[in-house]
């Protein structure tokens, strides 16, 4: 579950002004290849992708990650006053970086922000990876399912129990320590997420770009049944269930995670 990274790669770290007096911490590998933008979970930050960006950069992509408001390295802004959606921050960030179109990967809460962006600005996407995410649908049938899946007691469980699968917690004590250290720096849930749209099933059915829906087989937040349901409503969506993984496959099974995403992106170019 701990894999070697490719030879040394570099990235440029910066602060990007997205308005409201807020600067977001971001990093960019640069390069001339197609761009991949990575959106982190609520329990995380732009730090979380260290097992992805060198691999994706080695494969020829320009890779960009950032921390949302209140997460590691980024400003909080006026939490009480601002109504700026997180998808608007993303739009301003990619505009500042000169990205016309790009591949978007959003995990967990980052997948909710990414879905909001995909509905609001579909013309900007080359493809979309929905990674371990409940995507933020507001339809009554979906919300009823989430209430069965995620009762109030669930949110009171420890973050590592909710975010990491049992195989990883049992077999990778050193990785668990590193994950908790990253969580402590992340600023989890300090700034509430705001959305531009109320996403509904017909919005997913209108996606006209390639979509990969991916989750872990032991994900408590976004289990395989949920992933299958979402994929079934998106025309042509590909579905992948990763073995021995919970809600954070990018951390738990990075080699499998990276391979599935690169295979998906490579199939688009072919």
Give the CATH superfamily: Alpha/Beta hydrolase fold, catalytic domain
Order of helices and strands: EEEHEHEHEHHHHHEHEHH
Just name the CATH architecture: 3-Layer(aba) Sandwich
Helix count?
11
Mean pLDDT: 95
Q: Low-confidence segments, ≥5 residues, pLDDT <50?
A: none
- Rg for CA atoms: 17 Å
Describe it for me?
With 270 residues, the chain is α/β, with parallel strands linked by helices. The protein has a single domain, classed as 3-Layer(aba) Sandwich (Rossmann fold). It has 11 helices and 8 strands. The chain has helices at 53-58, 86-96, 109-120, 140-149, 159-163, 166-171, 173-186, 201-205, 224-232, 249-252, 254-269, and strands spanning 12-17, 23-28, 35-39, 62-66, 102-107, 125-131, 211-216, 238-242. Strands 1-2-4-3-5-6-7-8 form an 8-stranded mixed β-sheet, sandwiched between helices. Strand 3 (35-39), helix 1 and strand 4 (62-66) form a beta-alpha-beta unit. Helix 2 crosses helix 3. The model has no long low-confidence stretch (mean pLDDT 95).
Observed structural traits:
single chain; 270 residues; alpha/beta; Rossmann fold; 36% helix; globular
């Amino acid at each position: 579950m701990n894999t070697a990274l490719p030879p040394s790669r570099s990235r440029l770290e910066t602060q990007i002004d997205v308005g409201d007096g807020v600067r977001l911490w971001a990093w960019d590998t640069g390069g001339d290849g197609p761009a991949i933008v990575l959106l982190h979970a609520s329990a995380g930050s732009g730090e979380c992708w260290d097992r992805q960006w060198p691999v994706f950069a080695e494969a020829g992509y320009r890779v960009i990650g950032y921390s949302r408001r209140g997460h590691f390295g980024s400003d909080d802004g006026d939490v009480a006053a601002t109504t700026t959606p997180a998808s608007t921050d993303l739009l301003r960030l990619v505009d500042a970086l000169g990205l016309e179109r790009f591949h978007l990967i959003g995990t967990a809460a980052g997948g909710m922000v990414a879905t909001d962006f995909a509905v609001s600005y579909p013309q900007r996407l080359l493809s979309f990876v929905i990674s371990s995410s409940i995507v933020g649908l507001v339809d009554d049938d979906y919300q009823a399912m989430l209430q069965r899946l995620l009762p109030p007691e669930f949110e009171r469980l420890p973050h590592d129990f909710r975010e990491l699968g049992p195989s990883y917690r049992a077999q990778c004590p050193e990785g668990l320590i590193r994950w908790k250290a990253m969580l402590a720096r992340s600023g989890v849930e300090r700034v509430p997420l705001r959305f531009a749209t109320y996403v509904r099933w017909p919005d997913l059915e209108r996606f006209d770009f390639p979509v990969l829906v991916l989750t872990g087989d032991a994900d408590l937040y976004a289990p395989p049944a949920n992933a299958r349901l979402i994929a079934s409503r998106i025309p042509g969506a590909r579905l992948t269930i990763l073995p021995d993984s919970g809600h954070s496959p990018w951390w738990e099974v990075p080699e499998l995670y990276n391979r599935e995403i690169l295979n998906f992106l490579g199939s688009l170019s072919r």
